[in-house]
Amino acid sequence: MAVRGLLSFTLEVPDLDPGIRFYSDAGLVADIRGDTAYLRCPDQVRPSIVLVGGAPRKRLHHISLCADELDGMAVAVARNGGKVVASPERFEDGLWVEDPHGMLLQLVDEAPDAPPSATGEAFAINAPGRIVRHGRSAILPKASYAPAKPLRLGHVLVFSPDVLRSVAFVTDALGMGLADRSEDIIAFTCTKQGSDHHVIAFAKSPGVGFHHASFQVNDPDEVGRGGAALLEKAKRGDWGFGRHTIGSNFFHYIQDPWGSWFEYYSDMDHIADYAGWTPTNYSLEDSLASWGPGVPDDFVHNYEADEAPFQQAAMRQTATA
Ligand SMILES: [Fe+2]
Predict the structure, then answer these.
(1) Taking the CB of the first residue and of the last residue of the chain, which one, N or C, has fewer CB atoms within 10 A?
(2) Distance in Å, CA 319 to ligand 1 centroid
(3) What's the pTM?
(4) 121, part of any domain
């Protein structure tokens, strides 16, 4: 009985168009049906993001996970402070549960898309006494590169009013594992077999909400190129290029149209078998990054728990500047 992977997340948003534009610029492929946009990685079949338009403001609707033994999971959910609930209107498949804070999760007993396969030259770094790239240039002229291509949705980070309780729920009820944490401020959870370092992460906030989704690209250079290109198009906040301590991934975050974030990542730690992993409790100075530019003021601001959504807050700042 365990979660095997992350499938997608669904946001309610006021208008579809800015979201479709933003995520298309990020390299996802949009399929629009009525008031709903399904956004998938170019080489995948399943959507990674579902946007449902017409809401008063952006809000996390639910996260979809693949899991097995759903009957046993339903029992474990009820025993660990969660609740099995009816399928929301228009979303039918699977086991629907609320975590102890009311965050909605859909669990389906289905296989995820196949993992991306290796393409092109391996990322290779020449180092003192370790020359591994011979007779070729690491970097080609800019025009040689296609736009960044997200390969798969790697993880989401959501806000939680009680991070350790959220962790206890996904570990005890959903069969996930605590990868690492930083006190009770931020925590990272993984699946038990063949997992990225984190699949769902939690950051402390007065309420639940969506913070960011992270998409894997081929290598650190594509994180850098993709982040710079999306920033140029979106003209919003960003954080990166940098490297996280917890999970070790290179990152570049670009702010989405509603104040939450899109991340390109590469080279995350891998947990082949959770039985061999020991979680670390990092100090707060290691909670965000090993290195990188300064963190934007609103990087960990939960606009879903705020009275005013992101756009109105931005307008307020402009008016008082
Ligand atoms: Fe991330």
Answers:
(1) C
(2) 32
(3) 0.95
(4) no
